Amino acid sequence: MKLSPLVFAILITISAVQAASAQQQRVWVPQALQTLQENASSKSEFSFDHSMLVFASKLDPDNEELRRVIAGVSGISIHRFHFQETGAYDQGILAALDEEYRSAGWKHLTYSRDSGKSAGAINLWIRMENNAISNVAILLAGVNEVNFVVVSGSISPLDISHLGGHFGIPKIEGGVVVPSAERRLR
């Protein structure tokens, strides 16, 4: 049986839409993140699926570690929120974010808070499936900026360091966010 090009195109479109909606259903975003977004003076949010990550990794052909990590990653979602004033976001929102992750069955691996006057904090959560890490969420809260990164797929928390500095994920060295040249100029 031979399909007409129009019927074939319609079947492909329906399949693509069903696959996209199935992927979107797997992505869970905590309600507290929506609250941060509403209160931010500026925001940047974007996502990469696996094929986009593979394509982008080809821009750095000498980085074998990056390609190794990306092989197990199904997607990355990055959320950056900037606030006009220092401490303009409610610390209670960050606590609510933690509670939402814990309630959803995520494990809170690490928590680090600046000891000074600043509101800086670093949090790392993982989600396990079949005794393997299936998702990693990272929260990097600064004085007037919150960065939130979710990585889905088979990845270790150590592999996150290989993604730092790529795809809008801040570079982290020794538990400290390394400012990009763009941020140092401000």
Helix content: 25-40%
- Average residue-wise pLDDT: 74
Protein structure class: alpha+beta
Beta content comes to 25-35%
Strand ordering within the main sheet: 1-2-6-5-4-3
Counted by DSSP, the helix tally is: 7
C-alpha Rg (nearest Å): 19 Å
Task: Calculate the terminal CA-CA distance, rounded to whole Å.
Answer: 64 Å
Give me the count of strands: 8
Tell me the major beta sheet: 6 strands, antiparallel
Number of domains: 1
Order of helices and strands: HHEHHEHEEEEHEEH
Unreliable parts: 17-25, 182-186
Shape: globular
Q: How would you describe what is shown here?
A:
The protein is an alpha+beta fold and 186 residues long. The chain has a six-stranded antiparallel β-sheet. β5 and β6 (145-153) form a beta hairpin. It has one domain (29-184). α2 packs antiparallel against α5 and α3 (50-57) packs antiparallel against α4. The chain is built from seven helices and eight strands; from the N terminus they run ααβααβαββββαββα.
Question: What topology emerges from the helices and strands here?
Answer:
Elements: H1 5-26, H2 31-39, E1 42-49, H3 50-57, H4 64-71, E2 73-82, H5 91-103, E3 107-113, E4 121-129, E5 132-141, E6 145-153, H6 160-163, E7 171-173, E8 176-178, H7 181-184
Antiparallel strand pairs: 1-2, 2-6, 3-4, 4-5, 5-6, 7-8
